Amino acid sequence: MSQLLDLDALMATPLAEEPYPWTLLPHALRGQKVARTLEAEFPTRGFRTTERRGGAPGGKGYHTRNLTLVADGGAVAAGLSHLSPRWRELVAELSSPAYRRAVEELTGRPLDGARLAVRAVRYGPGGWIDPHTDRADKLVTQTWYFNSGWRDGWAGSLRILRSPDPADAAADIIPRLGQSVVLVPSDRSWHAVTPVSAAATEERKTLLVHFVAP
Ligand SMILES: O=C(O)CCC(=O)C(=O)O
Ligand SMILES: [Fe+2]
């Protein structure tokens, strides 16, 4: 049984159909104590800075710091070495058949043979991701957020978009502790992360999971 992920909440949540299949889980972790521990132990070391300017319309620009934990379905030892025991447990739960089944149940997408990818991401002031749909080989994407003290004025929202236009927002999700978003990538699944404000006194902390087509 999952001790950290609330798989019942995952399976009980309906998927929205507009502007594409996605959902917000307000409480995706098993209780406040678990959430607080994972927040306090969010990894701090081993991150690599990734930056690219958006060029053509719809091109993906971003500035984030990434720590890869699972790639191509396999644990990445160098990444895991930076994790607390509780965070290693979380990665083990994400790698479990029970989690995969829960995501299949929620999305209706078969994930047989799909390769798991997991990474922790930190966004400092000015960190952002331009509108994009996620690569075509991604079957399902899930994100979790780890900032209990995030303020609305710091921006850094995950913006669910109706089109590639960054202002065409269907929803803005504040990266507050315990919240999680599931989306089903397609050629319509536009989303972005709005630039974190210079006033932010903490980094935006995200965990990102993809199931990638076999
Ligand atoms: O950090 C987030 O909220 C989403 C990140 C994202 O969309 C991506 O890395 O593809
Ligand atoms: Fe994305």
TrEMBL record:
<dbReference type="InterPro" id="IPR005123">
    <property type="entry name" value="Oxoglu/Fe-dep_dioxygenase_dom"/>
</dbReference>
<dbReference type="GO" id="GO:0031418">
    <property type="term" value="F:L-ascorbic acid binding"/>
</dbReference>
<dbReference type="InterPro" id="IPR044862">
    <property type="entry name" value="Pro_4_hyd_alph_FE2OG_OXY"/>
</dbReference>
<dbReference type="GO" id="GO:0016705">
    <property type="term" value="F:oxidoreductase activity, acting on paired donors, with incorporation or reduction of molecular oxygen"/>
</dbReference>
<keyword id="KW-0560">Oxidoreductase</keyword>
<protein>
    <recommendedName>
        <fullName>Fe2OG dioxygenase domain-containing protein</fullName>
    </recommendedName>
</protein>
<dbReference type="GO" id="GO:0051213">
    <property type="term" value="F:dioxygenase activity"/>
</dbReference>
<keyword id="KW-0223">Dioxygenase</keyword>
<keyword id="KW-0479">Metal-binding</keyword>
<dbReference type="Pfam" id="PF13640">
    <property type="entry name" value="2OG-FeII_Oxy_3"/>
</dbReference>
<dbReference type="InterPro" id="IPR006620">
    <property type="entry name" value="Pro_4_hyd_alph"/>
</dbReference>
<keyword id="KW-0847">Vitamin C</keyword>
<feature type="domain" description="Fe2OG dioxygenase">
    <location>
        <begin position="110"/>
        <end position="214"/>
    </location>
</feature>
<dbReference type="GO" id="GO:0005506">
    <property type="term" value="F:iron ion binding"/>
</dbReference>
<keyword id="KW-0408">Iron</keyword>
